[in-house]
Amino acid sequence: MSTAIPERLLLGPGPSNVSPRVLQALTTPILGHLDPAFLQVMDETMDLLRRVFRTRNELTIPISGTGSAGMEAAIVNMVEPGESMVVAIAGYFGERIAEMARRAGAEVVPARADWGTIVDLQAVEEAVRRSGARVIAAVHVETSTGILQPLPPLVDVARRYDALLLVDAVASLGGVPLDVDELGIDVCYSASQKCLSVPPGLAPLTASARARARMAERRTKVQSWYLDLSMLQTYWGTERIYHHTAPVTMIYGLREGLRLVVEEGLEARWERHRRAAQTLWQGLQRLGLRLYVPEEQRAPTLTTVAVPVGVDDLAVRRRLLQDHNIEIAGGLGPLRGKVFRIGLMGEGSTAGNVHTFLAAFDAALRAEGWRAA
Amino acid sequence: MSTAIPERLLLGPGPSNVSPRVLQALTTPILGHLDPAFLQVMDETMDLLRRVFRTRNELTIPISGTGSAGMEAAIVNMVEPGESMVVAIAGYFGERIAEMARRAGAEVVPARADWGTIVDLQAVEEAVRRSGARVIAAVHVETSTGILQPLPPLVDVARRYDALLLVDAVASLGGVPLDVDELGIDVCYSASQKCLSVPPGLAPLTASARARARMAERRTKVQSWYLDLSMLQTYWGTERIYHHTAPVTMIYGLREGLRLVVEEGLEARWERHRRAAQTLWQGLQRLGLRLYVPEEQRAPTLTTVAVPVGVDDLAVRRRLLQDHNIEIAGGLGPLRGKVFRIGLMGEGSTAGNVHTFLAAFDAALRAEGWRAA
């Protein structure tokens, strides 16, 4: 059936490699989406998600779509047409938030930074003050550049201006320290296929009581029926009212992936990601390569490396894939051809994988004509 | 891991039971969404979808969400705010289309029929003439009632008034005769978990050249970034431009499920569904039960049976589930407590399952106090 599918070491920006336990969970017999046995699976999944997000938010569910569906759900539920929304943009995914918000009728007020740096706090505060926006959105780990945006100062701005803070944790949840309740984030979403190491297709999302109060005050219906969080809550909550047929099999997989996270322990997992990243960064520098993001702004889950002058990044990546069965990614937008993107996420974030990768990367670069300085 | 999950015979409105071959396909190693090996999986999947929809439409893809995401994709791409849309409504899912269309800013002009009957053609034509709508939407098999809406007359109206025809084939694709190109349907969407017997989570969708021309003429952006078909086409088409991370594992499962459909042959599969339904209807009538829909309007994939007077439908369904491991469903909306809904979809649509079900249903009804007339 799938004889032609190779086993890749997935070290790109996601999907990451999946544990055999998660793959096995996908073969669990299908249940109806209102079967009492499945309702229990849902309860367990929500409970595990709360532990991984570190929240007590009741509304903590997997959205039935990929990370971008989680992003769209967060946006369309929190803004109404004509409202202002400040978006901290330092890369491709910040731009995506802005684009979705515009499609939802919001007046987007961008607070921009150059790709490869974090967004300046004062730019965000100035945008909020100027626009009176009641929603601020930011990307925790910007997968297009590999920066890690510090969240506490953003929470502080949001509180002082009575704005909601939306955080994109697509490339951080499960791999980077994140405590939704302690920080005071209002809406946080992620994706199954990055640091949680579950196949792509679900977007965990959590919303605070403040966010739900804002939802209850809306004057307009949420433009997306499919992503309407109030309706989704009547299915995932105690009422169990049918909304759409839950993606049962993917939820089995997510539950198993979350169990693995909890068994490892969140702190231990964050530390594993931190250490693997340190090993990678040191190794890349030892090879003579230049990391694109200054160390104090770097995310441990996604590393950008400058493509050396005279080297064709596509040829190197093709060689890595064909000769070594290793996937990494190239740059997006203005970084196209300028950086390699190396992900160390979830199951894949180990010293062993880093060493395997460094040897293959060195060989592939040399085969494509690179000579270290 | 999943020791507590029972093996159910799924005879509700979906999900249906899944072949072991499909479950096995879900354990295929994860590939990146731009891996050449995965691009080939995508090509095969699109090719198989075209065979099952019976279309040569280039834009024939699985939407990354459940059937309702397919419905929302069809609607938000085909209407713009302020435009009229005629919706043929004869049940819960027709109402859902209308609700989504209103949220997309459309002026919905309903052509209604009583639940349990098909929509009258003249009501549709009158609504189109009166409103000048350029889009008509209809549900092929209305899963809330079990009617089968005849499509050729609707196509005829659409052509005469230069309107696009959107068809919800969620509970018909793969189980009921349907030929998108021969009929001349413009947009048709379905769901993975009904007659295709793949786990829930994907919504196959196809759009004609006429529909794509309408998309190209839009004055406004599609309100949903996630469901923007023009952008999705740049990923699924020859350009292969990243949009969102494809749900790789579910696509493996869909591909395998579609292979099973093609191996069986569409005509043979339709005939199997027809025969199983006949067996079910005769058996139910022999028990002395009343079918809710007149025979000439009945869908073979979903049957509604009147709940006998004095019988508690919930108690019967609970008994079927607990004592016999069989899932069927109750009525929705105005049919709540009034009908049972029995699905014979995909893998589950066999004479053997019908006989198993009839014996269990008879026993459960009697245990709940029913005495046949």
Give a structural overview.
The structure is a homodimer of 373-residue chains. The first copy, chain A, is α/β, with parallel strands linked by helices and 373 residues long. The first copy, chain A, folds into two domains: 9-13 and 265-367, Aspartate Aminotransferase, domain 1; 20-263, Aspartate Aminotransferase, domain 2, CATH 3.40.640. The first copy, chain A, is 42% helix and 15% strand. Chain A has 13 helices and 14 strands. In chain A, the strands form four sheets. Chain A has a seven-stranded mixed β-sheet, sandwiched between helices. In chain A, helix 11 runs parallel beside helix 13 (351-367) and helix 12 (313-324) crosses helix 13 (351-367). Chain A is globular and about 60 Å long.
CATH domain class name of the largest domain in chain A: Alpha Beta
Unreliable spans of chain A are none
The strand line-up of the biggest sheet of chain A is 2-10-9-8-5-3-4
**Biggest interface between protein chains, with counts per chain?**
A-B, 72 and 71 residues
What structural class results from the helix and strand content of chain A?
alpha/beta
State Rg of chain A: 21 Å
- Using the 3D structure, state the CATH architecture of the largest domain in chain A: 3-Layer(aba) Sandwich
Q: From N to C, what is the helix and strand string of chain A?
A: EHHEHEHEHEEEHEHEEHHHHEHEEEH
Please outline the major beta sheet of chain A.
7 strands, mixed
How many beta-strand runs of chain A? 14
